[in-house]
Predict the structure of Chorismate-binding protein.
Amino acid sequence: MFSALMDKVLAQLSQELPFVVYSKPDERVVKAIFQEDAKIHTISDFTETGFVFAPFDSESPAILIKNTETPEATEYPFETEAYEHPTVPLADTSQKKFHIQLVEKAVAKIKTTDLEKVVLSRRLNVPCTTHVIELFRRILARYPNAFRYLWYHPKVGCWLGATPEILVSIENKRFTSMSLAGTKPYVEGGTPSWGKKEQEEQKLVTDYMKSVLKGKTVDLQVATPETVRAGNLWHLQTRLSGRTKGNPNDLIKALHPTPAVCGSPMLMAKNFILTNENYPREFYTGFLGELNFINEINRTSDKNNRENKAYRAVKASTSLFVNLRCMQVLEDNVLLYVGGGITAASDPIGEWEETVNKSKTMLQVLTKA
């Protein structure tokens, strides 16, 4: 039962032991992996098995919670929950000024150098004393189409979120990925009109992903861009799929960070972010999810078949999501992370307002229904 699983989560928290509890998009199943000690396990080459939690900076270690057993799973018993539109906290005047000036600096650099796009972000410090289990329950109920999670390690921190973006999904040799760029507020009954800025941003991300996947995949398919909804926002999305060539784990290292969370060219954009953003992103715009899970599939539904084992297939699967729409939980406050892609066509005030709109996704979690 869901309540019993949450009791185990509470016990892990009280004993200061690592765990992750999560639910995939459009699923009611909640899975949990519990670690028996407080040791930090890190990724060396992405051939490991477990739940990976990776930071934005790929030079920093990715954390692994090993799944020595099949993850515990149950269904959550509640339906999708309505909520009040949150009140966005008044922005600190100095933070607003800093972000607008940072966008202006980025636009100037884009116009005078080879930098094409850079993703700039900021974080909000919001008072919060609501227990993390209640916050996770709200995320499950309010964002059923997203990847929802609560992750904790006593030596690293506590994070939770609801992200709409797949980094990569790999099943044996087949993979799916997406480029997600362009954002507009969701309006009931309406559909967004995408302007030049959003279309160029989407194309930059898609073109980059095609270039890094080209030498590592075969039969690469790129779908037509489509409009998708994530909470109170519209996004422009393009799906990419195909088969891996060589080690499937090479895709992970090639794709992260994408221009959707960093920029293009990647190294130039990353350097601009680390030099100018003025705060540590940590795990925001990193990635997380199931890494190299092994599942057995019965090819026959006849449970009485004595030769049933001969009809079983072993499936290796990886399912990773970009860590967007997330928060870091501290003692009596939370840090919310928001950002947006900057191109030559960006309007600094409009980019500030986009971060305000994006902040509402996690602020809704802090608002009681």
